[in-house]
Amino acid sequence: MARSNTGQSETPLLEIKELQTGFKIGKNYYNAVEKVSFNVDRRKIVGIVGESGCGKSVMSLSVMQLLPQGIGKIRGGEIKFEGRNIEKLSEREMNKIRGKEISMIFQEPMTALNPVFTIGYQLEEVLLNHENISKKEARLKSVALLKSVGIPRPEKIVDEYPHQLSGGMRQRVMISMAIACQPKLLIADEPTTALDVTVQAQILELLKDIQEVNDMSIIMITHDLGVVSEICDEVIVMYAGKIVERADVEVLFEDPKHPYTQLLMGAIPTMDERKEKLATIEGLVPSIQNMPQVGCRFANRCPKAMPECVTITPQLFEDDPNHEVACLLYENSNTIKKPLERVVE
Amino acid sequence: MNKIEAEKGISTKPKTDKEVLLDIQNLKTYYPVKGGFLKRTVGNVKAVDDISFTINKGETLGLVGESGCGKSTTGRTILRLLKPTEGKIIFEGKDITTISGTRLRKARQDFQMVFQDPYASLNPTQSVGEIISEPLKNYKSMSKKDIKDEVMDLLSRVGLPPEAYHKYGHEFSGGQRQRIGIARALALKPKLIIADEPVSALDVSVQSQVLNLLKELQDEFKLTYLFIAHDLSVVKHMSDRIGVMYLGNLVEIATNDSLYAEPLHPYTQALISAIPEPNPKKRKKRIILQGDVPSPQNPPSGCPFHTRCPMAKEECSKVKPILKEVKPGHHVACILY
Lengths: 345, 337
Known about the structure:
The complex is a heterodimer. Chain A is an alpha/beta fold.
């Protein structure tokens, strides 16, 4: 499974630095993703969690450069794929990367597939675009791909239309299309949200298998902490367009540091303990136009907010090895290792 | 589970009166399938196929299952929003299966519904005040002022500000809209509330607010809930007893603790095992079911689950198992027991 490029394994597969993506509302741009930086290492599954409107999907669309034209725009920062800047590539150059090096699967497989073409046609299209093969070979490969994602009777399904398949099957078809050219990075945007739990379990299992076999990295965008803990190696928690916490999955679930992460975990009912009352987060996410320019964006809802939270913007920093958090409770941790609150106790 | 609760000093809900509020007997709801030139009925989608259960006063019965298992149809049939094909719905000892007209209208005061999609379930042309006062205007002979006072009271009870009265649905977030829907359902002080996926359209932090609210209201107004959801952890959090549905059939029904501690039906086992746990240390080997749920228009013979069941035997395709009590309060429909 060794790739030709294992020589550069020190450089992360994807590097995002200070990314700012904005949307035009009226005459002004407002940033939905504000100075986000993180890396995706090779052969890693990185989860991005957050609630609706936190900017997780916008970030993935920025990487793919699929932002709505004329409305969404990358306004600053860098996106490096295998050491090469891709944020300023032309549409034509980007087309060579999309589907071939980086591909994406979406939440609703029915809207992502074209209803008027057969499954086979859509799969062959990907292959013919990116690979130098004949139509006949493309068809054979399509059947093999469908088989590899666990579709029964692939030689029949290849001639069927998306509406003839169930939700889980459609998502399998989407996955087969995404991995057709063996991309190095797969971005999965809520791939199981529209599916039932038993089918979700099948798809997660499939993604894990494919990741191992194809030696690729996955960015898993989801709102479901259960899904994250199930398949991710690393987790990024986003709130209102910013990263508030980043850590290895076990570390994050063991010791969530940011108050937002803590509340998010307290809010979900779990199977092994019965909570009488679930944690709640009061208030609402500030709208994109009214985002505070300084201070922590979570301050107005944070139960641990301090006066300085609205005047000092917390930066993401490494509080423990491999555990980054953006919260003033942990600032100056060189001198104080514990959160201030615990010190007061 | 009992032990953990005992240690934490959390008591399960007191069930002083075991009075039956709702008794469902052999309920069937079929949707006709029309076909051909003359649009004749050519078949039936057996959305609910012979299910029976009871709900006691003050308890929460959860109904879980995957899409298309008939859980929503069950809820809607109980409310008589759909016509049952066969069976009986007995509410407080009165058979409401076939009543109509004024009697049905009167009976409906006692059972209300909270819908899944808070965006679609509020009339966009009505203000919140109008939405919540609508049931009061329809059923109660109250003065305008009394109605307004009552609505204000309901608003504060579900955690909405008084200004909400003059606003419209679109001005609110998903969680707040769901609160409006809950206030409307509460307006007539119903005995039974059927909540059909009330939180599945909401973000987790908002979901927890609505779940907490539903629990508080239950204590305050002594409500009985039929809580329909696909999320097993949410159902576990809310319910006293849980029924598991598959392809229009009730395959298992038991108390909350008993069901999760020892699921008996292979489908329940797979369903529980499929839930991703928010705990990376507990990545477990899952029971992964093969394939998808068969079409309810053409359900498999015998046990509806035998096509996907990892433990299926030959006779499973021949005999349809009936629900029987294998442990006190724990019913399962499977030939293994």
